[in-house]
Amino acid sequence: MKEKLNEKIEKAASAEGKKVNPKLNYLALGVFLLVVIASYIKGDFPVDAEGNTIYGAWSLIPPVMAVIFAFITREALFALLLASISALFIMGEGLWGLPGLFQDALGNGWFIWVVMIEVFIGVLVSFFLKTGSTGEFSKVAGKKIKTRVGVQLLAWVLGMFIFFSDYFSPLFVGPVMKDLTDKAKISREKLAYICDSTSAPMSVLVPFSSWGVYITGLLVGLGTIENLNQASSVFFGSVIFNFYAIFAIAMVGLIAKGIIPEFGPMKRAEERAMNEGKVLADGAQPLMGVELSSIEKADEIEKPNLILNFFTPVVIVIVVAVGSYVLTGSAMTLEAFMFAVFYLGVVMIFQKLSIKDIFDTAVQGIKGVTPAIAILAMAYLINTASSNLGTAGYVIAITENWLTPSLLPLLAFLLSGFIAFSTGTSWGTYAIMIPIAVPLAFAFSGGAVTTVVYASIGAVAGGGVFGDHCSPLSDTTILSSFGAASDHIDHVKTQLPYASVAAGLGLIAYLIIGII
Prior knowledge:
The chain contains 26 helices and no strands. Helix content is about 75%, strand content about 0%. The chain starts with a helix and ends with a helix.
């Protein structure tokens, strides 16, 4: 049974891609050419008092193009690159500006840090596969958890448990649960959704997570908040008003339990997995490369040792990441995976694998994460281009005058969601929106820390996550697709309706608060 399932997965993974109407590709190229031509005949953009160019509505074109092109062409890399080039033409740099954009977007420690995490995740997963430990874990867990509901609930709990890092959570839960969800005929889209909707939503609700610490730091000096202690207290009070994050996490459990029935594209994906045994759609392009998914257990290891080959590396990752966070306030996520990889490599030597086999396996793991790294690089490219165009600032400028005390939380949520959707970053959205929404809330409350202040902070925090969940440009969404070895666009399409329901419930809650 497992062999047949793997055969179907590999067949889907090696397919050239889903059939797309060629006319849609021509349409995308046509729109791109229109933007390029218009950029030459538009005239000069105005300049502000500080000498910065004001691109206005033009700043919205590249991120909107990226999202639309990704959906209609099903080629995320192509869409992101085309949109980034269009931004360069709008800024008057043309193709000659592409090397500089690559350097600005990718030539920094933050991007390299993310890439290194993905590389070591790929190596660790390849070692798990080579030792046969994930298959053994799936076999053991399958004896105790025999239902699709149980498997989904286990993934849900694991996702909530890894609250300290939105990067670590999907990269841990996805590979650990993939064999088990495949065996239970749960679609990869569903696994990616569980990973995505329990990572950032959980992280943003915990005051002492990296997200909580970041938002707390942004609150210092706003309104009557004078220091970190006051900021921490205010953020803690805002958590119950982060309705999107709360509803998103709750929905995962309720859908897994069957209390909320599947609907939309996810329902079709789950029916395909259950009825046809296809955890991936025909022609899907999972972000985890075939090099990684095709690794077979080493002959030298007759029976995998779950303690040595699986649980100990997992414990190392968790202890190092959580321990470093407790001691220093910053989770050493990269170092955690590095230690686990080095440990497991040594164990494999003692299990009589040759150095060559171990390094060949590691190289396969690195090759397997290449699709995820490529699309992540393109996402950083368009995000940098949008930042250079001032996309977020333009959105703020045309909407901030609409805000009223009763509508502030609701509009703050929508605006944060739109900025995060357009730019693919929650943290960047918070840096923009919190200094705007929170002072307005204090002005409306007369300087007191009232419901409107708490609700506005919660709305900005939840809106940033919602925008990320709907955007194919988001790094956490990309990492969830990678962790679950899902087709990225399929993950975004199937998660979007679920995220929209959680957002709709949140909007109703903010509207009620505004009326009260």
